[in-house]
Write a structure and sequence with these properties.
The complex is a heterodimer of chains A (about 350) and B (about 300).
Chain A lengths: L1 E5 L5 H25 L4 H9 L5 H27 L7 H22 L5 H30 L3 H21 L34 H18 L1 H8 L4 H6 L4 H28 L10 H11 L4 H25 L5 H21 E5 L4
Antiparallel strand pairs in A: 1-2
Chain B lengths: L1 H29 L7 H19 L2 H25 L4 H19 L25 H5 L4 H19 L1 H11 L1 H6 L4 H27 L11 H11 L4 H23 L6 H5 L1 H14 L2 H7 L13
Helix pairs in contact in B: 1-6, 1-9, 1-10, 1-11, 2-3, 2-4, 2-9, 2-10, 3-4, 3-9, 6-7, 6-11, 10-11, 10-13, 11-13
The chains are: A mainly alpha (about 350), B mainly alpha (about 300).
């Protein structure tokens, strides 16, 4: 019988190795899955593991997909470190997208010709306000009425989704759009500044990387950041030290909501260029996996975002190249998180062989 | 009058899966385990139930498949959180995300398929009673069975020794362990039972309620069922009450849309979610009340030291 034995101290090695083990298990599951579906596993795996890195265009697409994931997962990492379970980032992302879309729509309809570098910061602000507002509802209900932030934030995802479809089916619908649920295409002045000629990668990617650095400084080099994190593992200690759990609640939720909102604003004015129901991509949920795979650490979040973008792009390619539904990437995401959580046990426990008594 | 009768009938039908899942999660949570994977388990079960009914032609095979699928997913969850001591929140989320992705992937061939002829389950003589017949007696048998299930769960929890042990484990696993009860095995059992019930609820959506398979068709009702257990302050009878309340809100909204009330249907569809939030706020307002009723070890890890 293998039994678990508590380690005296958490193993640093295991906390770094665990995501790698998890990735290996996921690749193993993927191989079995491809075999059982009668597909060539080498071909299948290369779609997921190699092609997303192949060539400049593929790399920029990877960066483009990573941008929202980095932004959202950084906010979630902050929340989870402080033991605030915001799982409704998808809703905050959507509200950011709606706010960004509203702004772009206003600029388009008014026919204002803005330089892109002027519109860019305003779009960030709009997204942050939209997402922050949605998260503030969660914070308010938790703070004032003790309502579970898990359930409230998740319910608001469905509300945000319906709000988006109300807007694109109703008041914001393109009158000349053949009745498709979408807004007019936004004007050129609302496009985000591109980083490379001919590629879709936009300046938001740099914002995401900058946010990661900022988050690192905040978490590990600032008193306020430390305060927030004490409340996570040991609320009693935080109380004793006089750190307010209410301010931790508000700070983490507002920051993560704002970051998710910025991600949403980037998506509508970046790759999408209009509001459609397809803005709801599930990035908010994928980012939860990113945050855990990235060990709730800013650098880890960046790396894990690239990894998960690889899965997302692989899923899209799997559809066109291997003839498998793109939902495949959802399966792999789930398996990855499962095996990660299982492997994480090794951080705190050591497996021991013990003869059955 | 006719509208009222059909509203009652629809409310019962919509409340039933919520009640079944809520009861399952209640058993689960009474043992101290919080399973945020309800949505994922229900999706996997909805697909399993639909596929089984599609191939066998029998509802009951479908429900059995749903229960089995739910129990299997729950067992994986249980093994992770109970034996490997993983974080219950994170693992439950993993179940929800995995269940969504997995069912979408496996379910592709079933999208757009129809189940064969549905059996008529209405109660022979009673269905023709004016008003009551339409409101109560033209339902799937599960709609009546769920009331029995609520009674059974209440009886089990409060009137049997096993129920007492289960509640003791949920309140104080260390003490139960010290008394020699196999805490981890009992918790796993509770999780599996909860999963099976969530599975039946999931299968109800794809076999009776819809009846078809669409990706993500549970549409947050797994989460609403989780909210129900809080709303019910972990009491079986109140789960039933809450489920019909939510069912009623969902259906009232649909009926108003049908009657041509001039509000966009997307805004009306927000009602069930908004009312869940509203009810959570109402019930959680008094933290002492929740603390008094919540199983004390809910969501906390328990690792037996010898």
């Amino acid at each position: 019988m293998i039994e678990l034995e508590a380690r005296t101290a958490p193993s640093l090695w295991m906390s770094i190795l665990s995501p790698i083990f998890a990735l290996l298990i996921t690749v193993g599951v993927a191989t079995l899955l491809f075999l059982s579906l009668g597909k060539d596993p080498v071909r299948g795996l290369s779609v997921f593991l190699v092609e997303p890195f192949h060539g400049v265009r593929a790399l920029t697409e990877l960066g483009l997909k990573s941008t929202p994931l980095i932004l959202i997962s950084l906010g979630l990492a902050l929340c989870y470190r402080s033991n605030i379970w915001n799982i409704g980032a998808e809703g905050q992302y959507l509200l950011g997208a709606i706010a960004g879309g509203w702004l772009a729509l206003a600029v388009t309809n008014a026919g204002i010709d803005l330089p892109r570098w002027i519109f860019f910061p305003i779009a960030i602000l709009a997204g942050a306000l939209g997402g922050g507002l949605w998260a503030a509802v969660v914070a308010l209900l938790r703070d004032r009425f003790h309502a579970s932030e898990i359930l409230v934030s998740l319910m608001l995802v469905y509300v945000a989704n319906l709000l988006l479809s109300y807007l694109v089916f109703g008041p914001w619908k393109d009158p000349n759009g053949f009745n498709f649920p979408q807004t007019v295409s936004f004007s050129a002045s609302t496009e985000l500044p591109r980083l490379l000629r001919g590629m879709r990668l936009h300046a938001g990617f740099l914002v995401a990387l900058g946010t990661a650095v900022g988050m690192w400084i905040f978490l590990f080099r600032m008193h306020r950041g430390i305060q927030l994190q004490v409340g996570g593992p040991s609320p009693a200690a935080a109380r004793y030290a006089g750190f307010s759990s209410r301010s931790a609640l508000w700070t983490t939720l507002l920051v993560s909501g704002a970051l998710a909102g910025v991600a949403g604003a980037f998506e509508v004015s970046g790759p999408m260029g209009q509001l459609t129901p397809y803005v709801a991509t599930g990035y908010g949920f994928t980012a939860i996996i990113v945050a855990f795979v990235g060990r709730l650490h800013p650098l880890g979040c960046v790396l894990a975002s690239v990894l998960l973008s690889m899965f997302l792009i692989g899923g899209e390619l799997a559809q066109s190249r291997v003839g498998l539904p793109s939902a495949l990437s959802g399966v792999f995401q789930g398996v990855l998180l499962f095996s990660l959580l299982a492997c994480d046990t090794l951080i705190l426990f050591r497996p021991r062989w013990r003869r059955p008594a | 009058m006719n509208e009222l009768a059909s509203l009652v009938a629809a409310t019962l039908s919509a409340g039933t899966p919520l009640a079944i899942a809520g009861l399952g999660l209640l058993v689960n949570e009474r043992a101290g385990i919080l399973n945020l994977g309800a949505e994922g388990m229900m999706l996997v079960a909805a697909l399993a139930g639909f596929a089984a009914t599609f191939h066998s032609g029998s509802d009951w095979v479908g429900f059995a498949a749903g229960a089995g699928a739910g129990a299997l997913v729950a067992a994986c969850f249980g093994w992770l959180v109970i034996w490997l001591n993983t974080n219950q929140y994170a693992t439950g989320l993993a179940v929800s995300l995995f269940g969504g992705g997995f069912s979408a992937f496996v379910g592709v061939p079933y999208v757009g398929r129809k189940l064969s002829e549905r059996s008529d389950y209405s109660v022979p003589v009673l269905r023709d009673v004016p008003f009551l017949g339409q409101a109560l007696f033209r339902q799937h048998p599960l709609v009546y069975l769920v009331v029995g299930a609520a009674v059974a769960v209440a009886w089990f929890l409060y009137r049997t020794r096993a129920g007492l042990v289960l509640r003791a484990i949920g309140e104080a696993p260390e003490s139960a362990h010290a008394l020699g009860y196999p805490v981890r095995r009992i918790r796993l059992l509770a999780v599996v039972v909860g999963g099976a019930l969530c599975g039946v609820a999931g299968a109800y959506f794809s076999i009776v309620y819809a009846p078809l398979w669409v990706e993500g068709m549970v549409a947050g009702r797994g989460w609403i069922a989780l909210a129900l257990t809080v709303f019910a302050t972990w009491r079986p009878a109140r789960v039933l009450l809450g489920a019909y309340l939510f069912g009623g809100v969902t259906m009232l909204q649909l009926q108003l849309q049908g009657m041509g009330v001039n509000i966009a249907n997307q805004l009306m569809s927000m009602l069930p979610y908004l009312s869940t939030v509203f009810v959570l706020v109402l019930i959680s307002r008094n933290p002492a009340w929740i603390r008094l009723n919540m199983p004390a070890s809910l969501g906390k890890p328990f690792f037996p030291t010898l």
